[in-house]
Amino acid sequence: MGKIVQIRSDIVMVDVGYKTEGKVSASELQDDDGNITVSLGDEIEVVVERKNEENLILSRNKAVKVKVWNDVKTACDTNCTIQGNIIERVKGGFSVDIGIPAFLPGSQVDIHPVKDYDQYLGQKLDFQVLKYDKKRNNVVLSRKTVLDYERQEEKEKTLSSIEEGSIVEGIVKNITDYGLFIDLGGIDGLLHVTDISWGRIKHPSESFSRGDNLTVKILAFDREKERVSLGLKQLTDNPWDNIVGRYSVGTTVEGKVVNIMDYGAFIELEPGVEGLVHISEMFWTKKMKHPSKILSIGDMITIKILDINPETKRISLGLKQTTQNPWVSLKEKYPAGSIVKGSVRNITDFGIFVGIEDEIDGLIHVSDISWRKRVKHPAELYKKGDEIEAVVLNVDVENEKFSLGIKQLEKDPWEELSVKYNVGSTISGRVTNVTDFGVFVEVEEGIEGLVHVSELSRDRINSAKELYAIDDTVTAVIKNIDSKNRKLGLSIKDYETSSEKSSLNHYIGNNEKVSSNLGKALADLKLDDL
Fold first, then answer.
1. CA angle, 414 as apex, 408 and 416 as ends, to 5°?
2. What are the pLDDT digits (tens) for 30-66?
3. Cα 20 to the chain's mean position, in Å?
4. 154-165, pLDDT tens digit by residue?
5. Which of 11, 255, 297, 482 is the most buried (most CB within 10 A)?
6. Which residues of the chain carry a pLDDT beneath 50?
7. What is the dihedral of CA 244, 250, 253, 257, to 10 degrees?
8. Among the CATH numbers 2.40.50.140, 3.40.50.720, 1.10.10.10, 3.40.50.970, which is that of 334-409?
9. What's the burial of 352, exposed, middle or buried (CB within 10 Å: 0-12/13-18/19+)?
């Protein structure tokens, strides 16, 4: 150690206790601007480079280097830190000034992956000496080991203080699709995306950034595995807890479309409270293939609350209920029995759809097309665009069905049949079908009667096919008429029996007439004539 006793422009005189004062080159005690950095009376460390009785040459720089190497050795041997200034980027890392140049590998800069290395330039930090070689003037430093040690100390402190249910502060360390990793101080906790908000969150990065300070709640803590589950939404009340008090069935509210599916749209009534508008509850008459045809995410719409279930956290909403039901107006406009006109919009196996209103079609079922004809498919008689007239059969508001009929434009031939014919009357017709149990006979267009096998003949037969074939003409007696169930019972056997009786009566009548005439002639005959 020496004491500065004189400062000149080229040298600084230092008393080190020798017979003569030592000389230190002024350049070794100047800053970058050339200014002397010491004052008279200051004590500094120096190294004796050479000496004789008249001159004592000292070096401040060599003394600094000797001290630095001693500090490096001590730091490496005792795992203590040494301070240095990161001065520039070099291949594979940084050059650090610790009194002598030292190397800091890029992998030893931080405990986390580094994207921007330039942020460290000019920083004065603490380092640990990994290794050194004085002969080669080589020192390798690490900042990562210093941070690891600090983090471990902080981690132990954090682990000893946290517990489930406690409120803690943390810093957003990393952001993923499924949540945020929060640095609680030496230990990371996971804030899952489902625990961020009571409302819907697409991606955590939309609301948070790395480095954000957050206050969170400890939901679960596994001390052995060092796993911490965090919650942010748990710091506020669950919006479903008092849902019935804020919303009532039947009321109309506004909401935002937050998701669209094939079966409907989800509407956010408030953060954390969503309801579903099923596709069937969107419009009274429009038949949509997909809700996205009329709704977009972010739309604000007016809807009606149809049902609330706090237990399952489900709210059913209706969009069509906010407009007038056209089916009610339709029922008032077209009472049963009224006649309407419209064009055929669609033809199916089971009937015809006829456009009556702009968005409401009436259905004419295949069974209501004709009284008399058997219609296998409506396309046999109609095509799209045909203008037809029909009778309103029913308007079912609840099930949204509009039933029409064409055959009802005419009188039911079965009702007229019971007026035209009586039981016991004789009727003729064409055989349309022959089965084992009998023969079907068409007596009028669209009206068939059945001659049961037991009514075909007085003789015992096994099958009707023994006597009749299709298109044969037969005459029979009407045994019964059931207009309600559209059944006509016929008997050829009774007709034959009645015909025989009629012939016999006619024969007997003729014989009686002959006998009567003969008796009269004999009576008129005079005896004289004999």
1. 90
2. 887 888 888 888 888 888 888 877 788 888 888 888 8
3. 93
4. 877 777 778 888
5. 255
6. 514, 527-530
7. 90
8. 2.40.50.140
9. buried
